[in-house]
Structure formats: C-alpha cells, structure tokens
Amino acid sequence: MSLALVHSRAQVGVEAPAVTVEAHLANGLPSLALVGLPETAVKESKDRVRSAILNSAFEFPPRRITLNLAPADLPKDGGRFDLAIALGILAASGQVPASALERLECLGELALSGAVRPVQGVLPAALAARAAGRSLVVPMANAEEASLASGLEVIAVEHLLELAAHLNGQAPLAPYQAQGLLRRVQPYPDLAEVQGQLAAKRALLVAAAGCHNLLFSGPPGTGKTLLASRLPGLLPPLDEQEALEVAAIHSVASHAPLDAWPQRPFRTPHHSASGPALVGGGSRPQPGEITLAHQGVLFLDELPEFDRKVLEVLREPLESGQIVIARARDKVRFPARFQLVAAMNPCPCGYLGDPSGRCRCTPEQIARYRGKLSGPLLDRIDLHLSVARESTVLHPPASAPDGDTASAAARVARARQLQLGRQGVANAFLDLPGLRRHCALQAEDQRWLENACERLGLSLRAAHRILKVARTLADLEQAETIARGHLAEALQYRGEPQG
C-alpha cells in the first residue's frame, strides 16, 4: 500500500484538535516533502524520523515521500507528530499493517535512536481520544498522565521497535495500568496554626464558603500570607471533571500535571510578574498564572507593588472566568475561574495604624500608594479586611469552634451544598436573575441597604456583591433568608482597607 493514514492530536490552548498524518509513496527521485502548515520543529521531524527508522533496523523507502498534516489550516508545532509520521511511512511501505492504525491515535517525539520521548499536552489529547473512541499510543513517560482519562485504553511505548512489534502482532503490548503516581496528595496547612486573628479567620471562612475574592490589609508580620495559604484547605475537594480541567491545563504548561493531583492549585506569582506572565501569551499562547490557578487560589502578595497595567488585566477574567488571547491568525481561550486573595500594607512603610506609632508616611504618600490600585479592581474584591497585629506572646492554638481546617472545611462544604442545590453555582457566580431570585430582601432591609450604599458611595456592582456575601453568611448559618445582621456584616467587609 502506498498511502497510509495515522491519527494524532495538535495542541491549541488547552484543546487537542484532531490531526491526520497522510503518508504517500510515489515513484521518482528519493525525496521527502512535509506539508500542512508545519512549524520549524515539525519540519525538522523528517530528519529525526529518517534516523529513527534506519536505527530501528527498518528500511527507509528510497521513493518520493509526501507527508500531509491535515487539516492544512491548523498550525502544528513541536515534536509530538514524530511517532505518527514514522508509523505513516512504515505503513505506506508495508512494514507495519495499515489496518492496525485505524483505531489508534499516536503522540510522541522520536530520538535518533528510535526511542520515544515525552511531549507536552498529553492529557487534553487523551480526553479527546476517549471522546473519539480510539486508543492512544504515548511515550512511557506520559502514560501515567494519559491514564487520568478513565476509560481510555493507553498503550505506552519506549521505542519505535516496540510499537512496530505490537502492530505486527509479534509482541502485543498490554494496555497500561495506572500506578497512581500522580495522586500524591499533600496535607494542607492547618488553620489552627494561625495565632489569634479571629476576624481574619472568619473572613477566610466566608470567602471559602461563597468563593469570594478577599483582600487583607495590615502591617508586616500580621499573618496575611499565613492566612492566605490556609484557604485551599477550606475549599471543597475537586470533582472528577474539575480535577481533569486543572490537570489538563498543567499538562499543557509542563511535562507533568500537578505535583499533587487532584488538589486545588495555589499560585503565588512575584510582584515583578509581567502581564503575559499573569494572563498568558506569547507567539504560541501559553497559559498564565490566572489559568494555572483555575479552580484554585491566586494569591497576590504586596498587591500595590504589582504594575498597575498588570493588575488591570485581571478585571475581565474576574468577571467572566476566562481569558481570550488574540493573535493575528487565531484566538486562544483559556479558562480562568480562580479565587483571588491579595495582601497589602496600609502605607509605603507598612505601619500605618500600628500601636508602635512608627509610621511617618505623609497623607500624600499614603494616597499615592493606595492610588496604585484602581477602583474598578477593588470593586471586584468582595471582602476587604484590616489585619491588626496580635500579641507577641506565644500560646497554644485556641480551641474555638471552626478553629482548625477540618471543622471549618466541614462548614464550608455544608454551605456549598446548599448553594449548589439551590442555584447550581457558588454565590460569587450568581448572575443578575439569580441574584433577584435567591437574594431577595424584605422591603425594610432593602431600603436599609440602599441607604447604606448611598451613604458609603458604593457602586451598583458593590451592592450586588454585598448581597452575595450576605447570602453566603446566611448559608453558613443554614438560614433560608438574608437577615439584617447578614447585611450589616457584609457591609463591614466593603470598607476601605485601613492599617
């Protein structure tokens, strides 16, 4: 047979569109042409494939070889098509049966020796192959990652010879059995380790229960970072679909998914991070920190030290839960449903309002420092809390209710179950019709809230977020309706952060 077809997958964002590798052998002077919009790394694959075939004791056909990567208008990059190209040539020249390739999809980069090397983005390809009803051939180093797609037959290979023997029926390979190597669940830091800070712990509980964004403001050493690191342990566990979404993103960004799967990610970019580092970008768009924090927590420490233009790019993802990176040829959409937790000092020196009285910042310096944060960005943060300095006297953790991660997480789980049963989403993601339906107030409370927002000069967006926080407070108490006390506490979280 002079024509063979091999199925593979490209990588576009976190998606894996199908690619068919067509290999045709014709009479004429020996040559190899590769078409189908290949990038440089793909063009170089013909040299890798030639050496791999020869070093695996196969014959490289001395004929005119044409390789087409279809569809032709889809950009292809990386070495992920090497294995499919080699199999196409071998099948077209009759060295492996073409019929054995019909129900297979292949991914893998070839070494000159014929060894199969790992590639990025295997998990999205595995999920797509499962949906297409085909088996997936991957490098052995990617097999554990591909096996996260339950129900998919994964064939793991280390060498081209090994795969050829399998296809020829000489040494059939058994489907790879998952070893659970990626399920290295690490214990979360315990909330009980944080000394004092009862108000901050309460805000953390509310943020976790309703998936609200949170801003801590206070002098250095008050435990802002310590508190933020406890938030992932309070959040409900990821379900299988959410865990696969997270792992697929990290598969695209690196050779392995999460270090501890299926835990929620906790990302802490440095304040010198650029806009593309935060939201993603590049000539070949890659996910940024907000996408790597999908279904988890994005913690921005020293918030005013970030470049203002960098922070402004967070505004749309905070509302939509996704980021669209536009390029001349295409648009790539990345998910970005993250929970923002930020920390800042109240003034340039950090000690405004500290009992020691060491702050010497002028009002102009304080105003300029806080002016680095725009009103629209702060408006999208539901909970603003000032964190005061605790006593330096060390004492054992308090045995207050919800003082540890386990008991607090149990309350959060009950509140989330109420929300999902009532409206299908966490309170922070309620749209306007859902807000009217599930956050209705009595007439007196409605007038009271309107007057309070008018006196404080709050926007309509801020008023809606107050209602969502009040709904979360009611859910934590298993209350059917929002009471005046819930509204009052929610309003307290909208004050300007002070030292």
TrEMBL record:
<dbReference type="InterPro" id="IPR001208">
    <property type="entry name" value="MCM_dom"/>
</dbReference>
<feature type="domain" description="MCM C-terminal AAA(+) ATPase">
    <location>
        <begin position="286"/>
        <end position="383"/>
    </location>
</feature>
<dbReference type="InterPro" id="IPR004482">
    <property type="entry name" value="Mg_chelat-rel"/>
</dbReference>
<dbReference type="InterPro" id="IPR014721">
    <property type="entry name" value="Ribsml_uS5_D2-typ_fold_subgr"/>
</dbReference>
<dbReference type="InterPro" id="IPR025158">
    <property type="entry name" value="Mg_chelat-rel_C"/>
</dbReference>
<dbReference type="Pfam" id="PF01078">
    <property type="entry name" value="Mg_chelatase"/>
</dbReference>
<dbReference type="Pfam" id="PF13541">
    <property type="entry name" value="ChlI"/>
</dbReference>
<keyword id="KW-0547">Nucleotide-binding</keyword>
<dbReference type="InterPro" id="IPR000523">
    <property type="entry name" value="Mg_chelatse_chII-like_cat_dom"/>
</dbReference>
<dbReference type="InterPro" id="IPR020568">
    <property type="entry name" value="Ribosomal_Su5_D2-typ_SF"/>
</dbReference>
<dbReference type="InterPro" id="IPR003593">
    <property type="entry name" value="AAA+_ATPase"/>
</dbReference>
<keyword id="KW-0067">ATP-binding</keyword>
<dbReference type="InterPro" id="IPR045006">
    <property type="entry name" value="CHLI-like"/>
</dbReference>
<comment type="similarity">
    <text>Belongs to the Mg-chelatase subunits D/I family. ComM subfamily.</text>
</comment>
<dbReference type="Pfam" id="PF13335">
    <property type="entry name" value="Mg_chelatase_C"/>
</dbReference>
<protein>
    <submittedName>
        <fullName>YifB family Mg chelatase-like AAA ATPase</fullName>
    </submittedName>
</protein>
<dbReference type="InterPro" id="IPR027417">
    <property type="entry name" value="P-loop_NTPase"/>
</dbReference>
